[in-house]
Amino acid sequence: MDLSTFKAWIAAIKARPKTAFVLSIAAAILSAVAYYQPDLIPDFENNNEPPVELMGWAGPDAAEKAYAELAPTLPKFAIEGHEDSRGAIVHLWDFAKQLNGEHIPTATQLVGDCVSQGAANAVNYLAAMEIVRLGEHEELRLAFAPYIYGSARAYVGGGRIPCNQDGAVGVWAAKALQQYGVLAADAEGCPEYSAKIARAWGCDGPPDQFQQLARAQIVKTFARVTTYDQVRDALANGYPVTVASDVGFRMKGQVEDGKLWGIPKGNWAHQMCFVGIDDTADVPRFAGGGKGAVYCLNSWGPDAHGESPDGAPPGGFWIGANVVDRMVGQGDSFAFSQFEGFKSQDLDFDVLLSSE
Prior knowledge:
The chain is of the alpha+beta class.
């Protein structure tokens, strides 16, 4: 439509007051719905659909069954802090940046191994926190997700999900970290991440040569979290939280009040990782409303959801407390603590810690 045609169209509407009034009412209604219930509005601005092939959570029924089977063997871990966590603002990425001056690289999944990617993120941020805050003389070496994927599916899950199908549940990964440990992505002989490696290890389990290396680095304790308050308590004390649910979001977040917000929409059978808490945040209505938010780190690459204006890690978004309750209420989300990490070889942590 050229400018002259547009002007003629506007003039025609003005000549019909009733039509103009009806159109203005319709526009006001659409604007209100777009702000308060954005999931009802088609996402014309973003034609990129969520990558369904990267969603590998087996669902709430499988997760609850797995948790019931494993419950007698799970560690007893109470999330307790020295102070009330209400009003907490904690960014676990700050610990990583104190170590190397930059964010931990955002993972880019290639298959439906999201459960292992979320668990690997939890291990990485837990390790950074323990090195900086607790002064542990360890080295930040990134976890190799296919090792977690294979341990979770083949060993803990017992091959319940066939080799021609991607996926796992969160509790399998949590138990795998405790029982089979963490393999560093830079370990000698460790292959680069690929779809082929993820699926091969997810089918048969990790090669024997890596198990001895990995078992020296275990996550001793983890606890299921089912409410926003429990997530807040965990994050306020430095414990990252994996979150597996079928709650979906628009691919591109929306910036408001200095944060990139995830907009709930549709369903994602997917695991991610919570790595930040701002219990003081006012959540926009389009993001669920209410008070309090967590930062959710995804594994679909650094550019998946838009740029975070507040310095949060790329590839994630903030989620309001009301939406967090929906996600963790599905029963397959876990807070992690006490990582027996990689012993430091080269870094002088005495110097590093004294500079905080």
